[in-house]
Amino acid sequence: MKEDIEKESEEAPIEIAPLVLTDEESEAYASFSENFDQEILRSLSPMSIAKIYVQAILDEKDDILYELYTDRPDYIMWTKEEDEQFPKQDRGNRRLTEETYNHLAEGKFVETGEDEGYIKYYRSEDPDSLMGFKLIRNENGIWQVAFMPIQ
To answer: Is pLDDT of 89 > 90?
Structure first.
């Protein structure tokens, strides 16, 4: 048992690919964070929405995160008030976020329905590191992040 623990700690950590927003994504992120106007996001791809979501996690902007979640009533899992009550330690940390969303920007968007889809990506070169990031198009045609987007 002790050998297994030592072996795990010797394994190389995942090499993190830095998340880089394009100029358009950075401008949208800045503008959206000022007033949460969904129209700012209209021209953005699902990939861009996902990248902005991850940037908001890294920046610890919980208010922006919540506003990026879908507003479709059938998909809402908790209210903004409930979200504000989540303890900081339950939101993870920077390293966990970087590992979870590592290589997300290199993924491919797969549309699974008229208003649903996910970004398929691999967190590392390991074929078992396949991840999915779910998005839902709102009733106004704007892509938003699903509550608990990681599949």
So the answer is: no
